Amino acid sequence: MSSEHHEHSHHHHNDAPSGPVLTIRAHSGLSGDIFLAGLLCMTGLDKKEMDERLAAVMPELKGAVHLMRREVNHIGGMHAQVDLPRQHEHRTLADVLSVIAANGMAEEAKKLAAKTFTILARAEAAVHGKTPEEVHFHEVGALDSILDICMSCELFCLLAPSRFVVSPLPMADGFVRCAHGVIPVPAPAVLELMDGIPVRPFPGQGETVTPTAMALLKALPTEFGPWPSMRVEKKALVYGTHVFEDAPNGVLFACGSPDADQSF
Predict the structure, then answer these.
(1) Quick one: where's region Disordered (predicted)?
(2) What is the dihedral of CA 110, 111, 113, 115, to 10 degrees?
(3) DSSP sequence for 73-109
(4) Would you call 223 helix, strand, or coil by DSSP?
């Protein structure tokens, strides 16, 4: 029995003793909102359950996420549209960790979210020559990061996969505009977190993997590799906000039971 399985064994599973297998095939990259949309599709939460869980993270997040169908090149997929109240608060790591500690998420999800934010703060600190405590989350909006990271961790714990397998990450050249001006991609915080991560070339231009997604991959029990052996039970094609020209768009999420009989 793996330690991961042992960790999750207090979940009430009616199925096989081990949790499902979850895979992400990141054709055009990965971001916090893609993670969120894909995990919402895999857990199958309805709008009411989703809003209850969002409100448990922070009351002002209730109703902020709309999972909707979107088409890219006439191919339908899912997309998480996020509408947040405008907040100009810059939050430090300590501020974010106290929000997480005080909220109504599952304990295991709180630990994962705190770990993700700490990884992100360390990366940003290394880039800017500061300590993690001095870093302010303002880049994509602290509220946005709290929503993506906390909900992704909550949904991941709800799914409780026994294996989580991600394809090598597509990396492109190009640039991204941010608060600091025009910077090359991968963005400095992504570059900081890239050690040990398998990557592959991508024919598009621009940011394919965001710092939020990279921090989540580092915090979660991620394996990198080809499609795992599994019986697929749920799948979704998920789109982010950016559409890449002349390149494959979308990210495939699939979830299913670990197949004991691999002889077929």
Answers:
(1) 1-23
(2) 160
(3) TTEEEEEEEE--------EEHHHHHHHHHHS-S-HHH
(4) strand
pLDDT digits (tens, 9 = 90+) for 189-236: 999 999 999 999 999 999 999 999 999 999 999 999 999 999 999 999
Q: How confident is the model at residue 13 (pLDDT cuts 50, 70, 90)?
A: very low
What does DSSP assign to residue 257?
A: E
| Cα 225 to Cα 169: distance, rounded to the nearest angstrom | 10
DSSP assigned state of 229:
S
Q: Cα 233 to chain center, whole Å?
A: 21
pLDDT (average), residues 256-263: 74
Question: What region, left, alpha or beta, does residue 215 occupy, with left being phi > 0 and alpha being psi -120 to 50 degrees?
Answer: alpha
> Could you write out the DSSP letters of every residue in 106-163?
-HHHHHHHHHHHHHHHHHHHHHHTS-GGG-EETTTTHHHHHHHHHHHHHHHHHH--SE
Token couple for 71: 């088409």
In the predicted model, what is the mean pLDDT of residues 81-96?
A: 84
User: Which pLDDT score is estimated for 176?
Assistant: 85
Residues 6+ apart with CB under 8 A from 11: 19, 160
The identity of residue 1, as a single letter, is: M
Q: What is the pLDDT of residue 14?
A: 47
